[in-house]
Amino acid sequence: MSFPKGFYWGGATAANQLEGAWNEDGKGVSISDISTGGSATQSKRITPVFEEGTYYPSHVAIDHYHRFKEDIALFAEMGFKIYRFSINWTRIFPTGFEEEPNEKGLKFYEELIDECNKYGIEPLITICHYEIPFEMVKKFNGFAGRESIDCYVRYCKAIFERYKGKVKYWLTFNEINNGTNPVGGFLALGVLNELDKPTEFQNPKDDPQARFQALHHCFVASALAVKMAHEIDPNYKVGCMQIMATSYPLTADPVDQVLNQQHNHRMNWFCSDVQCRGYYPSYMNRYFKENNIDTSYILDGDAEILKAGPVDFYTCSYYMSFCQTVHTEGAGEVAGNMMGGVANPYLKATDWGWQIDPIGLRFSLNEIYDRYQLPIMVVENGMGAYDKVEEDGMVHDDYRIDYLRQHIEQMGEAVDDGVDLIGYTTWGCIDLVSASTGEYAKRYGFIYVNKHDDGSGDFARSRKKSFYWYKKVIETNGADLD
Ligand code: BGP
């Protein structure tokens, strides 16, 4: 097993989950800023009006905004070749509607990018990672409104022009296909449907019409961004970002094969088919018809826009897999990453019930590459766990090392299978706030952050056992995984 020379090893984060400083230097309110804390058993809530005394984790997160130099230095110590982070849209355009960008926001990310480049770490920037300006939700239900396209393109123009020559890799929308799920509609697309009262994050009022309409506007916005990026800097490479929620038929019953195929079409292929190929896949016509989705939001000229802006590479998050079956009696249910399915009896799960399936990663990478023949990066993968600082002051996270080792082994297999895999950024390389549960207790990092859900902690950073392990993995280009 050998990873290609120049393979991009690194880590990934998102602004709303680590920066804090939610209202500093002219920043506006994003959709994540109105989400309360929660836990594995208690859903977080979306509150259109801020509640006095309620806890909003994104407001402080891990205070990266004030500590980014220390954090990048730690990433450099591990030998990162790439660092995936997101630009919080509301630092650049606080409401989404301004004509001119906020200079202080642009400056912050410029310093962050310069800091990465100083250590030879390639920045990989997610343009929109669950950080749509809340004002856009209020005005037109997020991306359900066609006006969102102009807001997004204006934002892209500002950052593409400003960071020209300093950045190569961009991702247009984080986990765009999360918008095909009711729970994902808010974070991925800014579709909220109810502004007059708080919404339970795990149980939102759903409007499939609004979600698929919003997805279309994201496709158009993404295609326009790709085209514009290439015009501004021919060296820019722009990718899509999908949740790869690998799914198997639970039984050999042909009915389960078709059920699983339909699930995969909608969940795993629809968005990437549009973004990689530049046109809608025909299987969605039946889905739209059977689900009463009126596609008159697809306007004349949109097909040409999509055709002119296919992405340069494919990226995905990968955490777990599910099964599909019509034989539900006796079959357990599992959830994970804002969706659910039928449990796979061959797999174990994390403390949050996400089923661990390293081989599924090899399988899916092959499927993706067969389909698109584009370079691929796995830009999120990792194990959320309860970490304990031992008496020696260190977290001995062998469970995390095991999880990552097995996934890296399977990526190596995929490379040997012929997949053009060019990078791997583990999720939450430094402990941060969980997106689905809004808690600190679910930790992913190589770097421990002393901050807790009861509000205690001084944000001090320390190296976990996995920190030293990943450093060696990078040093040996994935050859030494012990
Ligand atoms: C993905 C998101 C991330 C991240 C990760 C882990 O869905 O892109 O933002 O948080 O999953 O999920 P969680 O934080 O819910 O454990």
What does this structure look like?
The longest helix is centred in the middle third of the chain and has 25 residues, at 208-232. Helix 2 (64-78) runs parallel beside helix 4 (103-118), helix 8 (208-232) crosses helix 11 and helix 12 packs parallel to helix 13 (398-417). Strands 1-3-4-5-7-9-13-14 form an 8-stranded parallel beta barrel, surrounded by 5 helices. The protein has one domain (8-475): TIM Barrel, CATH 3.20.20.80. Helices cover 37% and strands 14% of the residues. The chain contains 14 helices and 16 strands. It has helices at 15-18, 64-78, 89-92, 103-118, 134-140, 147-162, 184-189, 208-232, 254-277, 283-290, 302-308, 358-372, 398-417, 465-475, and strands at 8-12, 45-46, 82-86, 122-126, 169-171, 199-200, 237-243, 246-249, 313-317, 321-324, 333-336, 339-342, 376-380, 421-427, 447-449, 461-463. The chain is of the alpha/beta class. Bound molecules: 6-O-phosphono-beta-D-galactopyranose. 6-O-phosphono-beta-D-galactopyranose (BGP) binds next to loops.
Q: In terms of topology, how is this protein built?
A:
Blueprint (H helix, E strand, L loop, with lengths): L7 E5 L2 H4 L26 E2 L17 H15 L3 E5 L2 H4 L10 H16 L3 E5 L7 H7 L6 H16 L6 E3 L12 H6 L9 E2 L7 H25 L4 E7 L2 E4 L4 H24 L5 H8 L11 H7 L4 E5 L3 E4 L8 E4 L2 E4 L15 H15 L3 E5 L17 H20 L3 E7 L19 E3 L11 E3 L1 H11 L7
Parallel strand pairs: 1-3, 1-14, 3-4, 4-5, 5-7, 7-9, 8-10, 9-13, 13-14
Antiparallel strand pairs: 2-6, 11-12, 15-16
Helix pairs in contact: 2-4, 6-8, 8-11, 12-13
